[in-house]
Amino acid sequence: MTDSDLVRAAIAARENAYVPYSHYAVGAALETADGSVYTGCNIENASYPATVCAERTAVFKAVSEGHRSISRIAVAAAPKGESAPFGEAAAPCGVCRQVLSEFMRPDGVILLARSETDYDVCTLGELLPRSFTAKDLT
Ligand SMILES: [Zn+2]
Questions:
Q1: Cα 94 to middle of ligand 1, angstroms
Q2: Residues catalogued as catalytic
Q3: Could you write out the DSSP letters of every residue in 33-89?
Q4: Which pLDDT score is estimated for 106?
């Protein structure tokens, strides 16, 4: 799967975002080390802290199916019903960066999409340098 394919999958997953409160829809699509692809969307809740981001939805789906290594993830955010963000492409929040760091190496690729053909390419190490990991617990 190409980067563009993964971005396309994230944009498609965004259609399922459940965002009745913020109307801020996010889709994510990740690829595991063995080439499997999992998607996710953000899912809001009337109790706001119970909301979960698209990235973590995708990660938890993959991990719950036995995967432990994520090589790439694409993220696509836009106001619900719009096809592109108003400004810069959104990056994963701090909590999602931390969750990704459990299953993704620092050189793992994160694609921040504005559209199917317009996206930034960065690494987890760039977005979360000197992350807290299992090595800090020993
Ligand atoms: Zn997040």
A1: 6
A2: 55
A3: TTS-EEEEE-B--SSGGG-B-HHHHHHHHHHHTT---EEEEEEEEEETT-SS-SSSP
A4: 97
